[in-house]
Write a structure and sequence with these properties.
The chain is 26% helix and 28% strand. By secondary structure, it is of the alpha/beta class. The strands form 2 sheets. The chain has a 7-stranded mixed sheet with strand order 3-2-1-4-7-9-8. It has a two-stranded antiparallel ribbon with strand order 5-6.
Length: 192
């Protein structure tokens, strides 16, 4: 796995030995191609950060800052090594994602929020359902922000009144959903 483009383009990233399903390079490239200029100067939040690849890709492409949230100790060490390798800085927070959403660290709001949660269920519900129903998540997104969620294709997207889907695309074993807060949705925007 590597950084696809930007100032750190081509640099290989470490991957933890277990419990991580990193975003494939071609999926990362497609995500960032879709985001285009929205990455420049963005404040980025990388939930279920794993390797830190999504936040690091954003930093490489001109994001102003990135916060990485991960609870696994080995993954935290990998994120820190990867940041050092690409000569970037970011805030690395070792906490459960849902605890972080309930009690954010500094009241920051983010322009881009990435989430690549496990495909397994938690508490009998999918991580997709848990995230989309979490008011803490919608509170962390800037008024014009975008939430980029990876999930298993075929997993039904639950109804969530505070979110509107801007775009959805499947890449093999991953579906990427781009969402915005419902109040920011314009009827002229394309949905898919």
């Amino acid at each position: 796995m590597r950084v696809v483009a930007g100032t750190a383009g081509g640099i290989r990233l470490d991957v933890p030995k277990a419990n991580v399903r990193p975003t494939m390079d071609r999926v990362k490239a497609a995500i960032f191609s879709s985001l285009g200029e929205a990455v420049i100067d963005a404040r980025v939040l990388d939930l279920f950060a794993g390797t830190g690849a999504l936040g690091i890709e954003a930093l490489s492409r001109g994001a102003a800052s990135a916060c990485f949230v991960e609870q696994d100790g080995e993954a935290i060490a990998v994120i820190e090594r990867n940041l050092a390798r690409v000569k970037a800085s970011g805030r690395v927070v070792r906490r459960d994602v849902f605890d972080f959403l309930r009690r954010p660290i500094d009241g920051a709001r983010y322009d881009l929020v990435f989430a690549d949660p496990p495909y397994e269920k938690a508490e009998g519900r999918s991580f997709t359902e848990l995230l989309l129903s979490d008011n803490g998540l919608s509170d962390l997104i800037a008024d014009t922000g975008t939430f980029i969620l990876e999930k298993r294709p075929g997993e039904e997207l639950p109804s969530a009144e505070q979110w509107r889907v801007l775009r959805a695309k499947t890449y093999g074993a991953t579906e990427v959903i781009f969402l915005t807060l419902a109040g920011n949705f314009s009827p002229n925007e394309t949905t898919a």
